[in-house]
Amino acid sequence: MENKYIWLFGESGGKTANNNSYWMWRFISEHHDEVEALFVVEKNERTKEVHRQLPQQLKQRWIWRNSFRHIQIFSCADMLFVSQSFVDVRPDEICGKSYKPLTTQPLVYLQHGTLAIKQLSYNNYYSNNCLFRFLIYNPNIKEKLQEINGLREYQIYNAMYHPRYMELIRRYKNRVPHTGKRILWFITWREYLGDNLESKRFFYDIKKVATNEKLQTYLGKTGGELRICLHALTNQADIEEIKRHVAGEPFVKIIDPSQVDVMTELAEADVLVTDYSSVGFDFTTMEKPVILYQPDREAYLSKRNLYCTEEELQKASICKRRELIQALTSENYSVNPFFRKRMPEKFDFDWIENGGHIERIFQYFWEKQSNNIAFLGYDFTGTGGTVSATIALAEGLLEEGYLVRAYTLKRMKNWEFPAGLALQPMLDNYQKHFTDKVRGKLFFWKGHYRFLKCDPAEKALRPYSGLAMTRLMRSIHARTVVSTRESLHFFLQEASSPMIKKKVYFFHTSSEAVNQLFPGAIRKLDQLQLENVIFVTKKNQEALKKKLGLEHYQRSAVIGNALDSSRMIKKNQIEACAVKECYTGVSLLRISKERKPALDRMIEFAEYLKEHSIENIRLRIYGDGDYLDTFQEQVLNKELEDIICICGQTSRIQEVYTEADFSVDFAEVQSFGMMYIESILNGKMIFCYDNEGARDVLSEIPKSFISSYEDLVQKIYALPQMTKQELQENWQKIYDRYSQKTVTAKFCGFLDL
User: Fold this and answer.
1) pLDDT tens digits, 505-527
2) Whole-number Å distance between alpha carbons of 368 and 108
3) 254, 242 in Cβ contact below 8 A?
4) H/E element, 64
5) Residue 460 DSSP code
6) Which of 231, 368, 672, 684 is least enclosed, having the fewest CB within 10 Å?
7) pLDDT on residue 434
8) Other CB atoms within 10 A of residue 546 CB
9) What are residue 661's phi and psi, to 5 degrees?
10) CATH homologous superfamily of domain 371-558?
11) What distance in Å separates the CA atoms of residue 127 and residue 218, rounded to the nearest whole number?
12) What residues does CATH 3.40.50.11820 cover in the chain?
């Protein structure tokens, strides 16, 4: 399987093999060898019978739930296809003990019904942010689905027809002839069921319909049959009570959905009676009549919200028992317009029967899978320009339709990620207790860090992080892999996975800082042959080529860093700075040891303000890091707390800039400076030194550069002289070069060359 992508299918909590996941798996297994399609299900009487009837080639792709093979396959699966949730495919025990592996694979939600009536809750949080695609079969629901569940547009795919319809149409065409009308009454679940009056009314109505004299006479004369299928979650005692009540009725049968093949029931029935179930779509696909019977509409809607309006539902349904009896006995029914108008105009039975709709779904996901992109990083849950820029680029690629995964060496905390971006820690956090035991013992050998020995964050990593990265590079299933950190370039360069077609090395560190931050990396980098290299600025490219000998590398490009739309304001929201009694500046940075020179200059500037009795300039510092306590102590010892306010880490970027009058960066060494574009795209001026990154990013905004503390003070006082138009022009210049859409387009163009 090393040379194939692995797709794992499952449905209904792993208990059935008769719905969308099963039939899509079976079609792919029979028609496509491009992927290793596997189906996981627990052993029960029904699934064992399905397995017994499978051809041998399909049996080899069948996995029993919680088996060793299941646990092994789940850990290396590339994509998960489910009908309800991760539970459909995820193992939950090992050797009889509870087991909950970390689920980070892209998730495809095939569904088990068509959304049209009752609402469901299925959001990104529920799916561990791994929901890659949510399939819909009713295009009218798209906007409502986004609104209710918070799904992004790129996460939704219109699949047209359920995969199981292939088998449904086959059975419909090959149905067994019978005399009289076969009426199937399909009853969905109610949240209100229990020991209450509404439940009693509900079951009373079922019994009264089933034993209605007029209906029984009709069934007897015509040779018809009423088959009542209650939801699988219905209390068994209630089902037995209904069975006893209708025992004397020869034309009525109560069927258990877990004991019958529902598709066969649908194919052979002549008319369907249902309430709020999407099974009406299945029946309408066969162009057969559906009666929506909702005697408990008020009670049901008290517990459920709708995708449609109550008015639409009322027009398409009936609520009274006598109306139902009259419709059935007079055969006054037809294809229900409620379902029909939410489906394609014409059904191509031959196309569906031959699996054309499944082939369409397969080709869509195969194109995504075979062009997937993986990012390698140190800590994608942390802060800093590299992190925010990489996440913004990943989101831009998701919006363009790419399948994107992010692999991180370190995962300190939960963080908000773009919807559908699967984050995979190198080392499973669920096994932390194990790693704590072995730390300092068996695995505390420097050799296990490998190339990470040149990384300043080595001590913050687990002793075998390098080993984990090496193993990943042998087995990763990604067409394009992008390394975002100099120490990780070495792992990618020696990667031997046969699935990798393109290796991309993204240099974020400035030429001045690369040897300081990654000691020994310059000598090693000069020895490598890297085929695809990306830089954040032209100056960065020229300097690194000269310093690292990158002129012999095959292909390179300058694309910059992206800023996602959630971290910026619109141009028309920009306001000029007014004359104020006090001006507040902000600085967003990682308060770490490598930033000490910049932090020292910040202290010096505050001392300059204090020495010159300048009391109307204040600084707010946002960030975190290993130098925070020391920096805080310096501020207090020098009595600068009235000037410098340390505000901690923040994710509310827009609010920070809105509350400020300007931003400032005291770094003399900077590869790019995300704060530069954040400031401009939030309508604020940025003041900084003429460093490597600033020369490119702010080349068209020369007023940003400062030469001294006195010069900085004068530029702050001159802020009210800047017009709204000037700030908007600055915004447009930066947006045209570094917006999420622009940088994503540059990246995609580089990959396509």
Assistant:
1) 998 887 777 776 777 676 677 67
2) 12
3) yes
4) strand 62-64
5) G
6) 231
7) 44
8) 11
9) -105, -25
10) Glycogen Phosphorylase B; (3.40.50.2000)
11) 49
12) 5-163
Whether residue 24 contacts residue 358, with contact meaning beta carbons closer than 8 Å, is answered with yes
Q: Compute how many other C-beta atoms are within 10 angstroms of the C-beta atom of residue 68.
A: 11
CATH architecture for segment(s) 167-354: 3-Layer(aba) Sandwich (3.40)
Q: Concatenate the DSSP letters of all residues of 646-703 into one string.
A: EEE--S-HHHHHHH-SEEEE--S--SS-HHHHHHHTTT-EEEE---HHHHHHTTT-GG
Instruction: Determine the number of helices (DSSP H) and then strands (DSSP E) in the chain.
Output: 32, 27
Please answer whether residues 84 and 12 qualify as being in contact, where contact means their C-beta atoms are separated by less than 8 angstroms.
yes
Binned at pLDDT 50, 70 and 90, residue 155 comes out as: very high
Q: What angle do CA 158, 154, 128 make, to 5 degrees?
A: 105
Q: Whose CA is closest to 731, among 596, 572, 586?
A: 572
Q: Longest C-alpha distance within the chain, in Å?
A: 105
Question: Nearest-CA neighbor of 671 among 539, 528, 567, 477?
Answer: 539
The stretch 714-731 carries a mean pLDDT of: 96
Residue holding tokens 């998730």?
107
Question: Dihedrals φ, ψ of 239, to 5°?
Answer: -65, -45
Beta strands 225-229 and 685-688, pairing class: unpaired
Token pair recorded at residue 704:
């940003």
Q: How far apart are CA 656 and CA 191, in angstroms?
A: 45
Coil, strand, or helix at residue 401? coil
Using alpha carbons, select from 401, 445, 443 the residue that is nearest to residue 420: 401
Tokens 């009454």 identify what position?
Answer: 185
How far apart are the C-alpha atoms of 171 and 166, rounded to whole Å? 9
For the chain, the helix, strand and coil percentages under 3-state DSSP, each to the nearest 5 = 45, 15, 40
CATH fit for domain 5-163, picks 1.25.40.10, 2.60.40.10, 3.40.50.11820, 3.40.50.1100? 3.40.50.11820
Amino acid letter for position 572: N
Looking at the chain, which residues constitute the CATH 3.40.50.2000 domain(s)?
Answer: 371-558, 567-739
Predicted confidence at residue 289, as pLDDT, reads 97
The residue whose two tokens read 């400062």 is: 706
- Burial readout 453-464 (b: 16 or more C-beta within 10 A, e: otherwise): ebbbbeeebbbb
pTM greater than 0.85 (yes/no): yes
- 3-class SS letters over 67-130: CHHHHHHHHHCCEEEECCCHHHCCCCEECCEECCCCCCCCEEECCCCCCCCECCCCCCCCCCCC
> Rounded to whole angstroms, how far apart are CA atoms 677 and 738?
8
Please return the burial class of 742, using the count of CB atoms within 10 Å of its CB with bins 0-12, 13-18 and 19+. middle
Going by C-alpha positions, the residue among 266, 264, 268 that lies closest to residue 277 is 266
Position 2 scores a pLDDT of 64
Q: Are 40 and 63 in contact (CB under 8 A)?
A: yes
Is the pLDDT at 195 greater than 90, yes or no? no
Q: Which residue has the tokens 């093999």?
A: 17
Tally Cβ neighbours within 10 Å of residue 485.
25
The residue that leads in pLDDT, 234 or 359, is 359
Provide the token pair at 357: 């709709």
Of the candidates 249, 254, 273, which has an alpha carbon nearest to the alpha carbon of residue 325?
273
Homologous superfamily (CATH) for 567-739: Glycogen Phosphorylase B; (3.40.50.2000)
446, pLDDT greater than 90: no
CA–CA distances in Å: residue 59 to residues 74, 257, 284, 581: 18, 25, 33, 78
Question: What are 687's two structure tokens?
Answer: 């003041």
Nearest to 328 by CA among 217, 435, 175, 403: 217
Nearest to 34 by CA among 609, 566, 650, 499: 499
Collect all residues with Cβ–Cβ distance below 8 Å to 539 and sequence separation of at least 6.
692, 693, 695, 696
Please compute, for residue 258, the number of CA atoms within 13 A of its CA located in the half-sphere on the CB side.
9
Q: Which helix (H) or strand (E) holds 509?
A: none
CB 278 within 8 Å of CB 117 = yes
End-to-end alpha carbon distance in the chain: 30
Q: Which residue has the higher pLDDT, 441 or 489?
A: 489
